[in-house]
């Protein structure tokens, strides 16, 4: 069911199995993140948010940031919720965090993921380069995109 109010909250270790389930569904033929990878990101203290509807995790996003730059590590939304603004909500939350520390932010996105590319362009990102065969094992290419620092 895709109705109800979507809320954001810090991603918890208890959410990791659902994150992995979403990864497996969204990225077949690739190398989806393992549960260990998610736990490691949370243990490192990186910034991760979950999107929830009626207590169910429907998406997640995360980034790592330093005093000099930030990197979006992931944004994923369960298929039934795609195209309903959940990805945009998650991205805006990440960008608000980045803007608090006033650093540029970078990410990689599949060159054939047109909805995501459009969302990033609409939020001030520019294509900076092309990474050939970035995604494995499929060998799909990725754009590197960046957005300059914005102060709040």
Folded structure, characterized:
With 152 residues, the chain is an alpha+beta fold. It has a single domain, classed as Aminopeptidase (3-Layer(aba) Sandwich), CATH 3.40.630. It has helices spanning 16-26, 35-43, 86-101, 114-122; strands at 6-10, 47-53, 56-65, 70-77, 105-110, 126-135, 140-147. A 7-stranded mixed beta sheet has the order 1-2-3-4-5-7-6, sandwiched between helices. α3 (86-101) links the parallel β4 and β5. The protein starts with 5 loop residues before the first strand and ends in a 5-residue tail after the last strand. The relative contact order is 0.16. The mean pLDDT is 93. It comes from Lentzea guizhouensis. It holds the Pfam family Acetyltransf_1. GO terms for molecular function: protein-N-terminal-alanine acetyltransferase activity. It is an enzyme of class 2 (transferase). Keywords: Cytoplasm, Transferase.
Give a short synopsis of this structure.
This protein is of the alpha+beta class. The chain has four helices and seven strands. Belongs to the acetyltransferase family. RimI subfamily.
């Amino acid at each position: 069911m895709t109705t109800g109010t979507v809320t954001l909250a810090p991603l918890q270790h208890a959410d990791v199995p659902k994150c992995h389930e979403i990864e497996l569904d969204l990225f077949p033929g690739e190398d989806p993140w393992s549960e260990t990878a998610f736990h490691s990101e949370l243990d490192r203290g990186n910034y991760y948010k979950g999107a929830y509807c009626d207590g169910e995790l429907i998406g997640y996003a995360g980034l790592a940031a330093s005093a000099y730059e930030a990197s979006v590590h992931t944004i994923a939304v369960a298929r039934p919720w795609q195209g309903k603004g959940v990805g945009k909500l998650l991205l805006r939350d990440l960008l608000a965090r980045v803007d608090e520390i006033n650093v540029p932010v970078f990410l990689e996105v599949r060159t054939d993921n047109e909805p995501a590319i459009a969302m990033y362009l609409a939020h001030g990102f520019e294509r900076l380069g092309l990474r050939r065969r970035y995604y494995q094992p499929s060998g799909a290419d990725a754009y590197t995109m960046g957005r300059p620092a914005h102060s709040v």
